[in-house]
Amino acid sequence: MIAASARALAAGDALGALKRVALRDDPPALALRGIAMAQLGEHPRARELLRRAARGFGAHEELARARCIVAEAEVALAVRDLSSSPRSLAAALSTLEAHADHANALQARLIEARRLLLLGRLDQAEAALALLNTHGLPPSLAAVAELTAAELALRSLRIEPARAALARAQEAAGRARVPALLAEVEEARSALDRPAARRFVAGAEQVLRLDEVATLLASDTLVIDACRRGLGIGATWRPLARRPVLFALARALAEAWPGDIDRETLIKCAFHARHSNESHRARLRVEIGRLRALVTELAHIDATARGFVLRPHGERAVVVLAPPIDGDQASLAALLADGAAWSTSALALALGASQRTVQRALVELEAAGRVRSIGQARTRRWLSPPLAGFTTILLLPASLQME
């Protein structure tokens, strides 16, 4: 019954797996029940069962206990619990490799790489993926590995490698014949055709797909990027994420290009002052000087009778690249768009903001009907609103092998 339940899980049949082990409380059955509950979207119950299974395995069954730790780590990733220490997963990985359990060792490495992607640590995620060897492994694991590689390529704006990885993922998912995995691949492929940003040129707005964004950023156009908070031309990049006043000035100048913008408007944009005074004007001169020094290789900022004007070198065009939705909560809405349930602490960690700031933004988004919450107190999770009025179920494409 244990072997039959494991085969059902590998095929994506969570209910069929539960039928065989639902009334058993031995550690292998608990582990299989935990994985099945995770595939059905019952993540708190899944974590409880997996922890019971890990405690139930004796000291001589460290391999089975390590598999339970890997399974729980994937459930934690599904509920966006990113605050846990990766040490336990690293210890489980060492145990799996010591026992030559290559499939589950790859699963553990994939979980860590996906966690790094969620946190925006692309260099570390790329290094983690470089250690993977999918040769000879089950197609479901190969599909997840290719999906992770595709997401890394998309976040790095390497569109053609992303398309190739998605094609390999679809081929592997077709061989695995797991419906949830096939749906995940299709969802990832559809992201290439959805709006990724908005381009503003001389007051005109245009919606761009991700490949069009990549083409724009690789051109010789001066781009003020409100998605990544910076500006640049081609490979030359000036980050301004930690200098919000300078970025606000740069964006205001770019939106007014090719004309100039008056000082009063710049003061309101940069300092959020309703009424300007001499101190504001003095501070504006200082900040414009700092911005001028920062972009000296890319453009000039000249004073005019009414304010300032941005003049890029070589008669280049100036483009403002903005997120597809407006507002300070755009990053939050983008994270929640994956359909998973996020905790407030995980959102704060992913955004690099304080938890209180994230809580205030979530309350505003909830009032506007753009997010919803489930649970209470510490168990509260945040999701995007369902498209058709019902709750979608996250099915983990897990291929954890349990014996």
Q: Can you list the strand order of the major beta sheet?
A: 2-1-9-3-4-5
Major sheet details: 6 strands, mixed
Tally of structural domains: 4
Multimerization status: single chain
**Count of individual beta strands:** 11
Helicity range: 55-70%
Arithmetic mean pLDDT: 84
* CATH architecture grouping of the largest domain: Alpha Horseshoe
Task: Explain what you see.
- Mean pLDDT is 84; it is low at 386-403.
- β3 and β4 (230-233) form a beta hairpin.
- This protein has helices spanning 2-10, 14-21, 27-39, 43-56, 62-78, 87-98, 102-118, 122-130, 139-155, 159-176, 179-190, 210-218, 244-256, 263-271, 278-294, 330-336, 344-351, 355-367, and strands at residues 197-201, 204-208, 222-225, 230-233, 236-239, 261-262, 299-303, 307-312, 318-322, 372-374, 381-383.
- The chain has 403 residues and is an alpha+beta fold.
- It starts with a helix and ends in a 20-residue tail after the last strand.
- 38% of the residues are buried.
- The strands form 3 sheets. Strands 2-1-9-3-4-5 form a 6-stranded mixed beta sheet, with helices on both faces.
- The chain has 4 domains: 2-137, Serine Threonine Protein Phosphatase 5, Tetratricopeptide repeat (Alpha Horseshoe); 138-194, no CATH class; 197-322, Arc Repressor Mutant, subunit A; 330-383, Orthogonal Bundle (Arc Repressor Mutant, subunit A).
- α3 (27-39) packs antiparallel against α4.
Descriptive key words:
single chain, 403 residues, alpha+beta, Arc Repressor Mutant, subunit A, 4 domains, six-stranded mixed beta sheet, three-stranded antiparallel beta sheet, elongated, disordered C terminus
